[in-house]
Amino acid sequence: MQKITTADQLNSFVDSYDNFLFDCDGVLWEGSNVFPNVREAMQLLRTKGKRIFFVTNNSTKSREAYLDKFKKLDIEAHLDEIFSSAFATAAYLKNVVKFPADKKVYIVGMSGISEELKAEGIRSFGGVEDDGARSIDDITDDPEVGAVVMGLDVNISYYKYCKAFTFLHNHPERLFLLTNADSTFPTHGTLFPGAGAIASPLITALERKPDAILGKPAQNMLEAILAEYSLDPSKSCMIGDRLDTDIDFGNRGGLTTLCVLTGVTREDKLLSDSNPIKATFYIDSFGDFASLSGSALPN
Ligand SMILES: O=C(O)[C@H](O)[C@H](O)COP(=O)(O)O
Ligand SMILES: [Mg+2]
Fold first, then answer.
1. Model confidence, pTM
2. Which CATH number do you get for residue 149?
3. Where does ligand 1 bind, in terms of residues with CB under 6 Å?
4. Domain that holds residue 19
5. Nearby residues of 253 by Cβ (< 8 Å), 6 or more positions away
6. How far apart are the CA of 263 and the centre of ligand 2, in A?
7. Complex prediction ipTM
8. How confident is the model at residue 293 (pLDDT cuts 50, 70, 90)?
9. Residue positions in the annotated binding site for Mg(2+)?
10. Ligand 1 atom showing the smallest separation from residue 263 Cα
């Protein structure tokens, strides 16, 4: 695993690939805080004619909402470049499961999931509608439920767990899907519980594992991107901050991988003998693409 620290190493790295797939949280930004020189680094790649894709496990926003975020943060992005675990989950229900029209999905998560399901013509309920303090007294089963989908939910509650449990307990025929299983969420200058941590209480209560987890490292999104854009994996690089999602995702797909140290992974963890997931390369930050090549803004 080589650390990129010089202009020559960076130029040789960038010139070796045509396509760059970016994780978002922990690579480009933390919340709405764009890391230094990210805009300039992204512009450098686009100026060199590189194909850019964004592949996020964050299911709280739809692709449209992510496009708005990119615009607000002044980072060039196009809708067909954006892939999220909410999108992957909706596509899985539509194209793989062939989810029946007379069934609906109960969501524990945020608007990204309901909006992507709606875009695929799949009926859903719950999500942000169930936010706030609610009584569990009136929770009953609903025979129309065909699946429960869980993702990062910053407004999680016992009420939501009870509803999801009710729809899945003693109903093995109903699908239990996670948009992603990230253990932590890099935000507010620290780490908070992630989507995987949010799902654990329900998994424990049900004594049942999810039927599918659609985000990275699952290959669903990568297969969709490679096929849709006829990308050559050997000329493609996945850039991420989490080893068990981003880097594993790229390694499994035969891509080169670059780990950045601005998110959840620390250099000592990355380099430790106990770490089973190795990246091809690593770098302190994606913004170093600009600072090393001399196209960074002055501090
Ligand atoms: O808990 C989560 O959902 C993840 O921490 C978060 O969404 C990761 O997003 P990504 O780093 O894949 O953009
Ligand atoms: Mg990340």
1. 0.94
2. 3.40.50.1000
3. 23-26, 56-58, 152, 180, 182, 185, 194-195
4. 2-57+217-291
5. 219, 222, 223, 226, 233, 238
6. 6
7. 0.97
8. confident
9. 23, 25, 241
10. 11
